[in-house]
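Quick question: what would this complex look like in 3D?
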Amino acid sequence: MATETRQMFDTEELVINMGPQHPSTHGVLRVVLRLDGEKVVSSEVVIGYLHRGIEKLSENRNWTQIILLTDRMDYVAAATSNVGYCQTVEKLMQLEVPRRARYVRTAICELQRIASHCLWLGTHAMDIGAMTVFLYAFRERELILDLFEEYCGARLTYNSMRIGGLPLDIPVGWDKKVLEFCNIMSEKVDEYEELLTHNRIWLERTRGIGVITAEQAVAIGLSGPPLRGSGIPKDVRKDEPYAAYDEMKFEVPVGTAGDTYDRYLVRLEEFRQSIKIIRQAIEGMPEGPIVGKVPRLIKPAAGETYHAIESPKGEIGYFIVSDGKSTNPYRFRVRPPSFCNLQALPQLIKGHLVADVVALIGSIDVVLGEVDR
Amino acid sequence: MIDTYVIPLIKILFVLNATLIGVTYMVLLERKVIAWVQVRLGPMRVGPYGVLQPIADAIKLILKEDITPTRADKWVFTAAPIIVMVPALITFAVIPFGPTVHLFGRDVPLYITDVNVGLLYIVSVASIGVYGIILGGWASNSKFPLLASLRASAQLISYEVAVTMTLVSLIMTAGSLSMVRIVEAQNEANVWFIFVQPVAFVLFFIGGLAETNRAPFDMAEAEQELTGGFHTEYSGMRFALFFLAEYANMIVVSSVATTLFLGGYLAPFPNVDALNFLDIVPGWIWFLLKTFLFLYVFLWVRATLPRYRYDQLMRLGWKVLIPVAIANVIVTGIVKVLL
């Protein structure tokens, strides 16, 4: 039938260029879509508009200066990138990090996860047309930014970690504010759910959209919520605990269908788990030093290492080679979760409509600063 | 002479100006209401509580450079915003704003004209407006607006049928197509038609949201998907016409819904003696209040709901609204014959 109609009328595919200035591509992502009507026949993802050469740049900076560059990768979750990098260098130098510092790192990582998920929820809901959720989510993100500002003075690019520990101890009374925030946040998550989870339109727009099976997800190399949404309980925090995650009690939420709705549910449950972890980390915070025994001149012995942590987007890994002679890494390479997850996009959007394309870009939660580096 | 020319002219001028001011302040109201829903203040800088914001916006839009893309079809590109705006304004010709009042020794009915096919006139004129959107998207010669105009035409077909079917059952209840007669029929029946035709009311409201391109059916201008949709290439005053026409259409749909279902200018529950004191309030104030109620719901819906997808909207229109509307017509007919 379809082919007959095509012979009757002279039809052709419409090539449409979405981005890099499109409002819903979350930065400077460019997707070239071939459309049949509004249906996506095929697509090509073009990246690189935000490439700053952070990896190469890092090979010409000393080990401490690189922390600052890691901020600029995933700029909505800068603290997580900091922690990941510092831990990699610590692993390379076999440094011991004091227990208090590990607890603070855990709390900060989880606060950052909530902030990043807030931004994701807001923009994702906005893409599907629910504009109020956007402002509600940003309202709570603002509270976290205030907490970060109090801790390290910055609101976006924190530079909040040091190799071997922390630059600063937590301010007096900060822990109480964080606990207070946890109370506020757990109420607000219910509020988001009320607006979206059982909303008929939301269900119609997200259920069965962009299904990715567990096998496909593994084959593409997804990580983080998109992988867990497909039902694979892989989480670096559980599998290879870092910081103080081995002492925390939490669950790893997984989805079943692997569609946009499941990825949404997984992230919403992660809000709750993060709140749980922050409470444990703050309440069980031990006394003690915040920096371990770190040599004055950071100059790891020759060798290489890979270390990954669970960022809000997925597994962020650092591969670092030191030649043991200079005060900068010989090779610096990042495995960014956004970049790897973005690979799934052409497969996800194939056969869906233009309206779903924006929903799916939001659903895999990419940050272009991290994709391009 | 005075009755045939002067009074209608004065009324036309008055209604036109009131509508245009209403439309500009609708924009402010929308920004304010949505801001309140979203726990923020909305415009606060221009005048106290931002009340002069619409005037500032209008001046800005008039002074802005009006760009016509080189590849655009110039005539159609210019005509499209006019085609959208004019039907929205001329619909008000048949809407009764209040009962006949006594002014300067004359009996002045508060409507511009009472056409005996008033409702048919509104339905036909309102559907012209969508052509402006389709033509605007087409004439821009740009890809995103083209997709938007395709969506608009699909939406037009799905919803016009359902809304017109809904109105048929209402006409059967009222026994007339004249807007004034419909209000009087509600007065004589001592009941608003919302209680007689609740299904028709719901269908009309959903259809009204879709016809005015409002959330959750605003896919023709979905800024997140189509970067503004049909008005992507428009700027300056021509963009303003599209923008204001949307609000004018909202007012049209609200005032038609008020007239048809909420008794127009009638006070609430005229048959309840305890509420007789409400008669002090003039009819046109009741009309405005009821219209405002509808407009508020429009804004509330926009702030709350996500957007439907284009194929889901079609499915809702063809598989739900139209069958229910037809069933409603049949049931109304059976009840009419039996009683």
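Answer marked as accepted. Chain A touches chain B through 33 residues (CB under 8 Å).
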